[in-house]
Specification:
Length: 342
Amino acid sequence: MTTTLVTGAAGFLGSHLCDRLIREGHRVVGLDNFLTGHRRNLAHLDGNDRFRFIEHDISKPIVVDEPIDNILHFASPASPIDYLELPIQTLKVGSLGTHNTLGIAKAHGARYLLASTSEVYGDPLVHPQPESYWGNVNPVGPRGVYDEAKRFAEAMVMAYHRFHGLETRIVRIFNTYGPRMRRRDGRVVPNFIRQALAGEPMTVYGDGSQTRSFCYVSDLVDGIHRLLLSDTAEPVNIGNPAEMSILEFARAIAAAVGASERIEYRDLPVDDPRTRQPDITRARQLLGWEPRVPLAEGLRQTIAYFRELAPEAPDGPGASGDEGAAGATETVETAERPRERR
Ligand code: UDP
C-alpha cells in the first residue's frame, strides 16, 4: 500500500488532501501542530485504520518510523492576517519545514510535492500569470514572509531534485475556497460569507477593483493529485482562471447567501496584489486538468458549511482546542510551544 505523509493535515487544503488520498487507497500519515489547522477538520478520520496522526511542528526535525512513499508539504499559515501575527513561524515552515520534509523524502526515497503559491508572482506585472513569470515580490513588506519563504522553498525543492535526484513536484496554488476554511482566517471568502450570513456589511478593501480568481477545493485537490502522479518537476499553476473584481465577488456572495449587498469600504492592505489570474495552459497540457465546479455551486457548498459550523467555534491561530480530537494523537515532544514567537 502507498503511504503518503501530509504536513498541514489539519488545515483546509491538507485535510481535503488526506480525504482524497484515503479514497484513492493510500495510507495517510497526517502531521500538524494546530497553529492554524484545527482538529475538527480530521475528526471524521477518527478510528480509520488507514490514517495516523502525528502532532508536531515540522519546522523541527522528525524521524518518521514507517516507510513513506510520498510527501506533500502543505503546512503553513496561509492568510495575510496570519502572516502579520505569525511572521517567524511562516518563514520557518516554508524554509526549515521544507528542508526537514525534503530530508524525510531523501531518507525514504519518497516522491515530494511542495504546496507553493501564486504569491511567488507578488503584485504581477504579467497577466495572466504563466509559470515562466518570475514575479514582482516585495521581500520586506508584511506579505514578504510568506512569498519569500515559498520562493525559497521552490529553490530548495529544485536543488534536491537536481543535486539529489529526488522526484519532486511544485504546485502553485491560486485563491482556493471551500468547506473547512477558518471562519475568521481573515481571507475574503470566509469574511464575506460570515458577514453576509450575519446581516453585516461586507468589508471591501480599497475600491474593490483588485481581481482574484477563485478555485473550488475539490478542483484544486484533483489537480494536485494529477500532478503527484505526473512526471513534471517544473512548477504547475493550479487555479481557476475565472477572474473577477472583489466588488463583483461580494455581489456574488450576497446573491448566494440571499443577503442584501451592503458594502463597507476599508483601507487596502499593504502590497495587496492588484490582479491575479492563473495561466493554466501547462496544467491542461501536462495533466489534462481544468476546473469544473462553477462558482455558484462552490459557494453553495461553502455557505452550507459556514451555516452549520457552530457559531462560536474558536478558530483563530492556535485556537485548536481539544474538542473533536483526531483520534489517537501522538505528540512529539519539542522544546518550543507552537505559539511561541522566535
Ligand atoms: N479582501 C477584502 N475584504 C476582506 C478580505 C479581503 O476586500 O474582508 C480583499 C483583499 O484586499 C484582496 C482580496 O480580497 O484584494 C483577496 O484577499 P485574501 O486575503 O482572501 O487573499 P490574497 O489573495 O490577498 O492572498
